[in-house]
Write a structure and sequence with these properties.
Purple Acid Phosphatase, chain A, domain 2; binds manganese (II) ion; Ser/Thr-sp_prot-phosphatase; metal-binding; 14 helices; six-stranded mixed β-sheet; Calcineurin-like_PHP; 14 strands; hydrolase; five-stranded mixed β-sheet; disordered C terminus; PPA2-like; alpha/beta
């Protein structure tokens, strides 16, 4: 019988120090990454496909290896463990710091297991990371060895696929699936595998909402579907949900609200790829008490209260009241009561990387290839070649 092991808190804090207190951040040794992945895998085995989370919580969208912008999120939104975070996936690829980004998130998850939740995006995949930067970055940073990539992509197979917040909000990376009418169908999937090309698991990480259509249509991304308001409404009604929150699409203003807030997109990579000029956001959910009636929140079993939590909750409310006219920002942003998008711009390190003008992961490789077979090179590259900065683009890998 295997004896479960844990990593001493002091060692985890040392990892955090390596990443946070050095410039550039120090990468963790391969053995440490291996150990972190092993311990987290054993923990994630017990986590259901859809986690039950509670407000207050801050929801973060795509990060894509933009490590310094992740640190910016902690600066503006509060740092763990004082703020609860749900990350919606796409931690790696594209940016220059996928290794540092995923390393920091792994350490934080193990250090503060009840304060940080990570779900899987379409980039948490062996195939995608081989083509869009993470694999190459690991080879470059670990002396030509792909071991760290192998360990981390094995771990990706264990990440949950979604979460509910206060039982009324559903969060996932991409969107809905024509094969899935009930949340219980997602709960029943065997998720411990590479992301398949089709089916519910693929659609959850690949699909997008579309205001122009009804029903489902095949997605131009080559995987997943587009879905209209009729689909969104039916899914919410059938599952007693008020809203879906997801990421996966670049938003120039950092967020998009669809159908009066029924569906929200959170995008958390500012100046995406060091050249898009877009803003980014974190969605802060303070409560889900829409009617004014007290709603009972369902606490997941085994949840541990951390000292000082009630204090930080209060300060989150105070900050919110101080910074925003609540009703105005709610109307402007198209969110539900108790929610607001905290908008932020690129960190100064992001700007420095822009000036340095390095190539961006996955952008210049002719063998990069989209999932859609036979399509020559890349929607993404074409976007930058043919369109001016700051123009909205609908679909990105
Ligand atoms: Mn994505």
């Amino acid at each position: 019988m295997t004896v479960p092991f844990s990593i001493p808190t002091s060692d985890l804090d040392y990892c955090l120090e390596q990443l946070l207190e050095h410039k550039p951040p120090k990468i963790l040794p391969p053995e440490t990454i291996h150990q972190l992945c092993h311990i987290l895998k054993t923990q994630l085995l017990a986590v259901p496909n859809i986690m039950s989370l509670q407000s207050p919580i801050s929801v973060v969208g795509d990060i894509h290896g933009q490590y310094h912008d992740l640190l910016e999120i902690f600066r503006i939104g509060g740092s763990p463990p004082n703020t609860n975070y749900l990350f919606l996936g796409d931690y790696v690829d594209r940016g220059y710091y996928s290794v540092e980004t995923i390393s920091l998130l792994l350490v934080l998850k193990i250090r503060y297991p009840n304060r940080i939740s990570l779900i899987r995006g379409n980039h948490e995949s062996r195939t995608i990371t081989t083509n869009y930067g993470f694999y190459t970055e690991v080879l470059n940073k670990y002396n030509g060895s792909s071991d760290v990539w192998a360990n981390i992509t094995d771990l990706f197979d264990y990440l949950p696929l979604g979460a509910t917040i206060d039982g009324t909000i559903f969060a996932c990376h991409g969107g809905l699936s024509p094969s899935c009418q009930q949340l219980d169908q997602i709960r029943a999937i065997d998720r411990f595998r590479e992301i398949p090309h089709d089916g519910i698991m693929a659609d959850l990480v690949w699909s997008d909402p579309d205001v122009e259509i009804v029903d489902f249509k095949l997605s131009p991304r080559g995987a997943g579907y587009l879905f209209g308001s009729d689909i969104m409404n039916k899914f919410c009604n059938d599952n007693n949900l008020v809203q879906m929150i997801r990421a996966h699409q670049l938003c120039n203003e950092g967020y998009t609200s669809y159908w009066k807030g029924k569906c929200l997109t959170v995008w958390s990579a500012p100046n995406y790829c060091y050249r898009c000029g877009n803003k980014a956001s974190v969605l802060e959910i303070l409560h889900s008490n829409y009617t004014g009636k007290a709603e009972t929140s369902i606490r997941s079993e085994g949840e541990v209260e951390v000292d000082g939590m009630s204090e930080s909750t209060t300060s989150l409310y105070d900050q919110h009241n101080f910074r925003f006219d609540k009703q105005k920002s709610q109307v402007d942003q198209g969110v539900l009561p108790g929610q607001f998008f905290n908008i932020f711009e690129a960190s100064k390190e992001n700007d420095e990387d822009t000036i340095n003008g390095k190539s961006v992961n996955g952008m210049n490789s002719s063998d990069g290839g989209e999932l859609k077979s036979g399509k020559n090179n890349d929607f993404f590259a074409a976007y930058f070649l043919e369109r001016p900065r700051r123009q909205h683009v609908e679909y990105f890998l």
